[in-house]
Amino acid sequence: MLVVDAATSPAQAARAAELAVAQSCVVVSSAPVVDTVKSVTDGLVTGTVERDQLAVVRPPVALPAEVAATVAAPAAEALGAWVSQVRARWPVTLLPAGPGSIRPDRRADRRRR
After folding, report:
1. pLDDT tens-digit series, residues 34-65
2. How far apart are CA 87 and CA 40, in angstroms?
3. For residue 113, what pLDDT is reported?
4. Which of 4, 43, 99, 111 has a Cα-to-Cα distance from 10 of 20 to 30 A?
5. Closest CA to 61 of 93, 97, 21, 29
């Protein structure tokens, strides 16, 4: 199974599919988090989360046949939660998003262009 969106390049989709088959794992495209992320407790900011421990996951998502037969396709709006659930049962490889992979559907990303 290969899940893409309008911003997925054919090369990135092909690479994800190749890795999923070759390594028998789920492959999900990812990018570094560039925004500052804060931790919050009881409505109060309590600290800054280190960005090097975080990633943004996005299409393409590639699943080998043996995985696709056992899981539901991911919903774009819940991709992070889906990856966490799948990772409990199957190996997941994060495929670094290529240069220029900023998503045009995010308001903050549009400002960076």
Report:
1. 899 999 999 999 999 999 888 888 899 999 98
2. 26
3. 43
4. 111
5. 29
Best CA proximity match to 29, nearest among 40, 42, 14, 44: 14
- CA 65-68-72 angle, to 5 degrees, is 170
Q: Give the integer Cα–Cα distance in Å for 41 and 100.
A: 35
Query: Can you read off the two tokens belonging to residue 62?
Result: 């590639």
Ranges in the chain, pLDDT < 70 = 76, 98-113
pTM of the model: 0.74
Give the pLDDT of residue 99. Answer: 59
CB distance 51 to 106 below 8 Å: no
Closest CA to 90 of 27, 4, 19: 27
